Amino acid sequence: MSLKTKVLTAAAFAALLASTAVQAVTYTVGTGATYRPFEYEAPNKEIVGFDIDLMKAIAKAQGFDVEFVNTTWSTIFPALNNGDRDIIMSGITITDKRKEAVDFSEPYFLAHQLILTSSNLQIKSLKDLEGKLIAVVNASAGDVAASNAFGKASTNIRRFDNTPLALEELANGGVDAMIGDVGVLQWYMKQNPDKKFNQCRDPEFQEQYFGIGVRKGNTQVLNDVNAGLKKVIESGAYNEVYRKWFGSDAPKLPAFTK
User: Fold this and answer.
1) Where would I find the Solute-binding protein family 3/N-terminal domain in this sequence (predicted)?
2) Where exactly does CATH 3.40.190.10 map onto the chain?
């Protein structure tokens, strides 16, 4: 092989390495686009929301790409665990039970449960809903709260596939109350001032956190997500996204554990 040929071969190899190095990995993100303001479909069918903007910022900070796929709540965990999704981000509350099925990122959103009741019903706690019809999203934190209070088999608990359906049932008078995440329900109240619902936070409702889920043992994806999340928090990009969607500065999140 001539010197010229060797030089050309080396140059081609270097170019190949360079092109490979700049090709960012793309992660498929499952998100349930019925959960305003965290994720929902705009009129042009684009998925938008707080979670979407935050994940884009995380990906940019850490140098990977993301592709969002609308995934129903009932299938979002199976889709992650069977490999159809690399990440799930859909206002998912971190719980001990869910930790058994997926690995969670560091917390990215402070939340708690909230109760909305019809205009003619005033309550001070969840217990005041004894004998009332309650709407929840199936397998959500609100479902857990209602099941713990009244029994999972209670016929007064009406389970729905998503939040809009549960809120519609409350608006139509089919149930007396709805339990859900505070960010979602307060957003709904802000966007629908004609709905004269009452709000109640049970004193026993503890603060909760949302986390980004990855498949058990998938340390590469988890490390990328956590590293990107840490960068956007430290840079102030997280607060910018929070202010865009909620109109105030973000509350302080727990210190990273890893």
Assistant:
1) 26-249
2) 26-110+209-246, 112-200
Paired tokens of 233: 């928090």
The token pair that represents 194 in the structure block: 């004609």
Torsion angle, CA of 225/231/236/239, rounded to 10 degrees?
20
Is the CA virtual torsion 105, 250, 51, 181 positive or negative?
Answer: positive
CATH class assigned to 112-200? alpha beta
- Determine whether domain 26-110+209-246 maps to CATH 2.60.120.600: no
What's this model's pTM, rounded to 2 decimal places?
Answer: 0.80
Candidates 119, 253, 130, 254; CA nearest to 202 is 130
The gap from C-alpha 159 to its chain's centroid, in whole angstroms, comes to 19
Question: Residue 186 to residues 16, 37, 167, 173, 214: CA-CA distances in angstroms?
Answer: 52, 10, 12, 19, 28
**Confidence category of residue 13, pLDDT binned at 50, 70, 90:** low
